[in-house]
From TrEMBL:
Stored CDD domains: CAP_bacterial (cd05379)
Native source organism of the sequence: Photobacterium chitinilyticum
Top-level taxonomic group: Bacteria
One Pfam family this sequence matches: CAP
InterPro entries xrefs: CAP_dom, CAP_sf
Upper lineage: Bacteria, Pseudomonadati, Pseudomonadota, Gammaproteobacteria, Vibrionales
UniProt-annotated stretches for the region Disordered: 25-73
Compositionally biased spans, kind Low complexity: 25-67
UniProt xrefs under PANTHER family: SCP DOMAIN-CONTAINING PROTEIN (PTHR31157:SF1)
Protein name per the record: CAP domain-containing protein
PROSITE patterns in the cross-refs: PROKAR_LIPOPROTEIN
Domain SCP: 80-206
């Protein structure tokens, strides 16, 4: 039987002079931005666990230029930013995390990230829980990825990759996901929709295959 260990805290949008935004654990973010708590799941991640992904049919958000999962430059830049962070020890909310090996990019994890960012952007919500109650592990399994551990970071409102990485690295839960020694692969996506509350929605998915 799969055992799951979840790091879940409530999401809190902090407003105030100078920042106007924050993460659920109090890290400062750019004005109008918000970061969800990093979720970590460990266990026996087979792809036939019955999890379902959010529905991204009729996608009206913009992910790159065509509403499709991002690859190419976005993948290269995100992977480089994450691996640069992992290459040096850092303090994640008072816990020193050692430097860890670089990750590789996985397109199944990218697709899982895209599904969630697309749904958040197009259905105007911000949560690790998807439209139909699915969790990060469900979305990864839905892509046929057999996992032994899964982590997810989400954020909304940050206008570029440098800003969202800074937001995550200054938030303990997200920082620990980025620095997680148990992860070997990642994928990520951002989707924009000017009609949604935060306009741009980011998802990082980390995993180790089984």
């Amino acid at each position: 039987m799969r055992t799951l260990s979840l790091l879940i805290l409530s999401t809190l949008l902090v407003t105030g002079c100078g920042s106007g935004g924050g993460s659920d654990d109090g890290a400062v973010a750019d004005s109008g931005s918000n970061s969800g708590n990093g979720t970590v799941i460990s266990g026996d991640g087979s792809s036939d666990n019955g999890g379902t992904s959010g529905n991204n049919d009729g996608n009206s958000g913009n992910n790159g230029s065509n509403g499709e999962p991002q690859s190419g430059d976005f993948a290269d830049q995100m992977l480089a930013a994450v691996n640069a962070a992992r290459a040096q020890a850092r303090d994640c909310g008072g816990q020193m995390m050692p430097a860890v090996p670089a990750l590789t990019w996985d397109y199944s994890l990218e697709q899982a990230a895209f599904v969630h960012s697309s749904n958040m952007a197009n259905y105007n919500f911000f949560s690790h829980t998807g439209l139909n109650g699915d969790q990060p592990s469900d979305r990864v399994s839905d892509q046929g990825y057999s996992w032994s551990s899964v982590g997810e970071n989400i954020a909304a409102g940050q206008k570029d990759l440098a800003t969202v990485m800074d937001s995550w690295l200054n938030s303990p839960g997200h920082c620990k996901n980025i620095m997680g020694a148990n992860f070997t692969q990642m994928g990520a996506a951002s989707v924009t929709n000017s009609s949604a509350q935060y306009s741009i929605y980011w998802t990082q998915v980390f995993a180790r295959p089984r």
